[in-house]
Model the fold of this input.
Amino acid sequence: MVNLSFQTWEDHMERYTMHDLVHDLVALIMGDELIVSYVASKNNKAHSQKYCRYASVTKYDHTTRLSNVLPSKVRALHFSDSGKLDLSCEAFSFAKCLHILDFSGCSGLLLPASIGQLKQLKYLTAPRMQNEVLPEFMTELPKLQYLNLNGSSNISGLPESMGKLGSLRYLGLSGCSGISKLPGSFGDLKCMMHLDMSGCSGISELPNLLGNLTNLHHLDLSECSNLKAIPESLCGLMHLQYLNLSSCRSITRLPMGIGGVVHLSTLDIRVTNVREVPWRIQGNTLVLVDDFYSDKMVKLAEGVISSSGANCKGALFIVFVDPFNPRYQPLQVPLLRVDGRHMKVPQWVKQGFFNVCTLDIRLCKLVHEDLEFLKTQMPNLQALQLRFEVLPREPVAFTGGGFKKLETFCVDCRLPRLTFKREAMPKLKHLEFKFYTSTASQDYYMGIKHLDSLEKVVFRCSKNYTIDGRGIRETIDVLSKEAVEHPNEITLWVNDMKPEVFGSGATLSAWPQCANPLSVGGIGRMLPMRTRS
Done:
């Protein structure tokens, strides 16, 4: 009975493997209550043990009737090393007391109709089932709590009477890629706590009736590659603790109301096109997002202030994404996005943001007082997006002595007038500009050579202006010339063009002249670049 040792843990069925010596000891203690039946053996007399309650059938040969080798009062039955099973329709009609039926040791099987007679059955695992649909007789099992059909890719649908399984708490449909929709009665499974639909690639839409599964704790929709959206009704699952949407590449957004799922502790959105988690979290939630090098976890902080100034228990959270990275690598940090336009950094922002890692704010201008606050009073700041309404008369100077953890800096302004002094932003890797005008800018020195950790610079221009516009071209020229002298390898991106790589001691070549300045392969200026080796 190695594979029939089960233990319940937090309402989920766990499975353990027993050491051979422990197994032999248990067999000795259980005596006549246990049968390990090798059906191929001609001397098998297991059927004579009328007190047997637990049985493991090995190498079932299809020719022997199960009723000849198993007693009628058997309660747990496990098949192992039995290949593909082809059971007769009446195979289990004798076993009316069966509670556990485990086919996990079979490479495939067709469920016989007699399973519908097992009114005491609570646990059924039938992975790699060969039936094209889940038979109607399966819904005649009133006490069934655990049903595992993982890997049954032949199944094209579930019966409309599925809702009759009122005691079902666990349903495993992982890898059932042939299922394209859920039956209308699915919402009647009110006791369901664990639903695994990972790899159900045939599902493109989830019905609102999933919101009726009010006891659901665990929902796995990973690798449902054709699933396009998550229904708002899921936001009513107040007991939901785990939601896995990883590798659902067609999903681009999450329902706004999901922040109201107060017990949600883990949300996995890796390898999706979700770029924003825009809600107030009611408690602590672990959010799994993509990372280029590893799978990192993000725990949302407590006690921050929302953009309206109201206290909330959790954090407003966003995933910043580098759109030029082929893996869409996000920056995994809690975010405060300050809505509206402000003359200065609001006082309520200054009063409580010691642990904020990302700030997105729109200002008329950046005064010295606010610049010092950002530098010295937000020591955990890793990403900063500044949006300026008014073009600064003089370049904004960023000096040393602050921004110790800042890695991403985005500037949204008519023209990016700023300079970096020695020891400014020592960990900055990603510098990004978004600007809109072709008005000429004065010649100034940006000072990116002082950004010791810089790796990437991104320019985004409004589509209403061409990159050959005088002010835009001059701004890119200034930075490109400085990038050539930088000791690091600097990658320069301009809109959706092919990136160019610069750096000190580079092999110099010329950027080709482009007839269309927005075409891939150049920006319409003759600039030296570094060629990759």
Remarks:
- The helical segments are 20-30, 66-69, 347-350, 368-376, 470-485.
- The chain has three domains: 1-130, 132-274, 391-501.
- Residues 470-485 form the longest helix (16 residues).
